[in-house]
Design a protein that fits this description.
Strand order of the largest sheet: 2-1-4-5-6-7-8-9
Number of helices: 10
Radius of gyration: 22 Å
C-alpha cells in the first residue's frame, strides 16, 4: 500500500526516454507578457481571477493540437482573443501572439517557439525549433501574398541547410517527417528533434468536466472519455469490464469523496441502448448521477481521468511510438471548481500518487489560497503562482 505524505518532497521526474513538455513560454499571449511556466510531473497553476490560468492551459492545448497536425483555425477559433490588449498593429495592421515550449527527452531539451499573426488574417509568421547550439528548423513569412512560409532546416551534408516552402496554417515541426529524407546525420538529428516534440505534445488531454452534460445518458459506443466528460457513463461501463484493479481504485475514491455510502460506481443500460451512471449505495439502493451535486460529479470525473490512460481518454497519442515511451499530460482547468475541502485533499493525493508512477503528468489550474493549492504544495507538486 502506498502512503502519501502531506509534507512530501518533489515528485520524481519521468524516465529520460519519455518525451515530456517541461516548460511553457507565453512571450505575448492574452494577458501574459514574458510568462514562463515550468512543468513537473504534477504542476499546480494558481493565481487570482484574471491572472491567466485558463489562457495558459489553452496555449498548451493549442500547441498539442498543432503537434497532432491540426490547423491554426481549429486550435484558435477566436484568435483575436489571445492578442495582448496593448499590442499595437504595425503599418500593415498586423497583430498577433507568441507562444512556445520546451520538450525534454532522449536527445536533450528541444525548444519550440511560434509566432502567430491573428489580424488581419490568421497565419504562422515564424517558427523556430532549436537545441543547445543548433537550429533544427526556422521559418519566416517572406511574402504576405503567398499562403506559405519559407523554411530552412538543418542538413549538415554537402549543403548545410535545406530550404523550401511550408503551409502557413500548420506547425512546420509536425510536417518535417514528410519533408526530410533522413539521409545525412544532420537530417536524422532534425527528425529526432521533431519526433521528440511531436510525441511530447500529442498525448495531451484537456479536461474540464461539465456536470450538466454528465447527467445526460450517453451512447454506449462513446467509450473514449471526452474533455467535458459528458460520456462518463459509457466510459464507466468500459473500464469496469476491462480493469478490475483500476475500477476498485475509482470506487475507493468515490467512497472518499461522495456523500453517503458507496459500494460501486457503474453504468446501467436503458431500453434504447444508452447508458447512465449510477452509484450503488448497497442493500439494493442506487443513486443515478443526476442526483449528485456538481462538485461530486466533477470529483468523480477527475478521479476517473487520473486513473485511466490514452486508450480510454480521447487523445491523439502517437500510435507509432510504444506506450512505454509516451507520457500522458492532463490539462485540468478549474481543477478544484465546486469541490469541498475533503474532495480537494483526496483528489490532490490521488493526482500525486498517479503522477509519481510516471505514466501521467498533470497541469491543474487551482484557485489562489484554495484547499487544492495547499494540498498540491503538500504533495510535492511544482507550484506556479501567476499574478494579475
Amino acid at each position: 500500500m502506498t502512503v502519501l505524505r502531506r509534507d512530501a518532497p518533489p515528485l520524481p521526474g519521468a524516465s529520460p526516454d519519455r518525451p515530456r513538455v517541461t516548460r511553457l513560454r507565453l512571450a505575448a499571449f492574452a494577458r501574459h507578457r514574458g510568462t514562463i511556466v515550468p512543468l513537473g510531473p504534477f504542476t499546480a497553476v494558481s493565481g487570482p481571477s484574471g491572472s491567466g490560468k485558463t489562457s495558459a492551459l489553452h496555449a498548451f492545448a493549442a500547441l498539442a493540437g498543432l503537434g497532432g497536425g491540426a490547423h491554426l483555425a481549429d486550435v484558435f477559433p477566436d484568435p483575436q482573443a489571445y492578442v495582448p490588449e496593448r499590442a499595437r498593429p504595425d503599418a500593415e495592421r498586423r497583430r498577433g501572439f507568441h507562444i512556445g515550449c520546451t520538450v525534454e527527452g532522449p536527445i536533450g531539451p528541444v525548444r519550440l517557439d511560434l509566432a502567430v499573426q491573428a489580424e488581419p488574417e490568421l497565419r504562422v509568421v515564424g517558427e523556430r525549433l532549436t537545441g543547445p547550439d543548433i537550429t533544427y528548423l526556422q521559418t519566416a513569412l517572406r511574402d504576405p501574398g503567398r499562403r506559405d512560409v519559407q523554411a530552412a532546416w538543418h542538413t549538415a551534408g554537402s549543403v548545410p541547410v535545406t530550404r523550401g516552402p511550408l503551409p502557413d496554417d500548420l506547425l512546420g515541426t509536425a510536417m518535417l517527417p514528410l519533408r526530410v529524407a533522413g539521409r545525412t546525420e544532420g537530417q536524422r538529428k532534425v527528425l529526432a528533434a521533431a519526433e521528440q516534440v511531436v510525441v511530447g505534445l500529442r498525448s495531451t488531454f484537456a479536461c474540464d468536466p461539465d456536470p450538466t452534460r454528465m447527467r445526460t445518458p450517453a451512447p454506449a459506443t462513446a467509450d473514449r472519455l471526452h474533455g467535458g466528460c459528458d460520456n462518463l457513463a459509457a466510459v464507466l461501463r468500459r473500464t469496469g469490464a476491462e480493469c478490475g484493479t483500476r475500477h476498485a481504485l475509482l470506487v475507493a475514491a468515490a467512497r472518499a469523496g461522495l456523500v453517503g455510502p458507496v459500494t460501486d460506481v457503474r453504468a446501467e443500460t436503458a431500453p434504447d441502448g444508452s447508458v447512465r451512471a449510477v452509484v450503488d449505495r448497497g442493500g439494493g439502493v442506487t443513486s443515478p448521477v443526476e442526483r449528485l451535486a456538481d462538485g461530486e460529479l466533477r470529483y468523480l470525473a477527475l478521479a476517473l481521468v487520473l486513473l485511466t490512460g490514452p486508450r480510454v481518454l480521447a487523445v491523439d497519442a502517437a500510435a507509432e511510438v510504444p506506450e512505454a515511451y509516451q507520457s500522458l499530460t492532463v490539462l485540468a482547468d478549474g481543477f478544484d471548481r465546486g469541490l469541498d475541502r475533503a474532495q480537494c485533499a483526496e483528489l490532490t493525493a490521488l493526482a500525486a500518487r498517479m503522477c509519481a508512477r510516471g505514466h501521467i503528468r498533470l497541469v491543474a489550474a487551482v484557485g489562489e489560497g484554495s484547499e487544492a493549492e495547499r494540498g498540491a504544495r503538500a504533495e510535492g507538486a511544482a507550484m506556479v503562482d501567476l499574478e494579475r
